[in-house]
Amino acid sequence: MRRPQYVFSAVRSALGQQQRDAPEQQSDRSAFYNSTPSSCRRFFPPSSQRVVLCEEQKSSSSSSENRKLTLDQQWRLKPAAERTNADYYCATQKNWSRQWDEDWDARHPVNCGQPPEEIRAVMKSRPQVIRHIYLVRHGQYELDSDEEGLTELGRHQARKTGRRLRQMADGLKKDHYGEIKINWKKVTSSALLRAKQTADILAEELGTTVAEYDPLLNEGRPCIMHPGNGVDLDSAKLAKLGTDPPRIESAFRKYVHRKENWKKVNSNREAVSEAYSGADKDGGTGGSAAGDQAKEKKEPKHEYEVIVCHMNVIRYFVCRALQVPPEAWLRFRGDNCGLTEIIVYDDGRVSLGRFADQGHLTIEETTFH
């Protein structure tokens, strides 16, 4: 049965009259596309490669020849009164499947030219690393200020959030699956003031400094939301639709992935064969010493890191990590200084440990804006 087409909605060019009146912006967008990592480009093809209207937007009066035109060509052929951004809304980039994409982060050892049994041997011979990515929304900020810095309550929220993270590191998590000692590897932040101020307070509580203020993590519109796509697209700032989606997608690929890039590991055939032959000896242990080493490596390692950013970015990251159609991002809601945990296992599985958790704040300290 054919899956419904979910629109990825990463529109790669400014829309409408603005596109024709400012050709230099088109060249800027082309340069941005060319600078996008090749692994990301399938999500953001240039406008000349985009498909035409989807099934819901096809007019019964449209000819088959007209439906073969690109969106830009269709736009120019329409009378000015009929030009709407809804045409661009249906520029479908990807059909989202119910099946899990094992190579979602381009790090799964598929199509590496190695026999499956040798690949499994290499994966077993290396320590398993489970990544815990904590996404923290910034504290309350001044909506009426151009700088949009934290309010006094926002600073208090950030301080209590930092203490919560420090308490997690001070303790020892124990359950049926064993003991885990949390060590915060690093703190990264968006480059916007409200996020930077929140990250600085968190880092101070954790006894460290912010590793990077990354503009890729800045707030923005990750893609058009659904439901409400048509209205939202017509009211959106057109230029933002050409820059925010690819930027936020690039941020996702930079920060959310499994620890080991198995494609690079398995590109070395000699190393793969050596690991496979070693694991094949003595019942798969590679000798007594290797067997002891294998037992030690069975215990997974856990890495924890903090990223302070914005709710739109967090919601989009969650959708992409769980392989939920990203147009659903606005169906999630999170308050200031809420904690979201994305867990990425070494084999590529992903879990949502928590979403917008603000249990460390009282009801009086809880705000959305």
CATH class of the largest domain: Alpha Beta
Q: What would CATH call the architecture of the largest domain?
A: 3-Layer(aba) Sandwich
Give the termini distance in whole angstroms.
Answer: 43 Å
Poorly predicted residue ranges: 1-33, 35-64, 85-93, 281-288
Q: What is the count of β-strands? A: 8
SS field, number of helical segments: 14
**Taking strands numbered 1, 2, ... along the chain, how are they ordered across the largest sheet?**
5-4-6-1-7-8
User: How many structural domains are formed by the residues?
Assistant: 2
Q: Indicate the CATH topology of the largest domain.
A: Rossmann fold
Shape designation: globular
Proportion in β-strands: 5-15%
Question: What would CATH call the homologous superfamily of the largest domain?
Answer: Phosphoglycerate mutase-like
Radius of gyration: 24 Å
Multimerization state: single chain
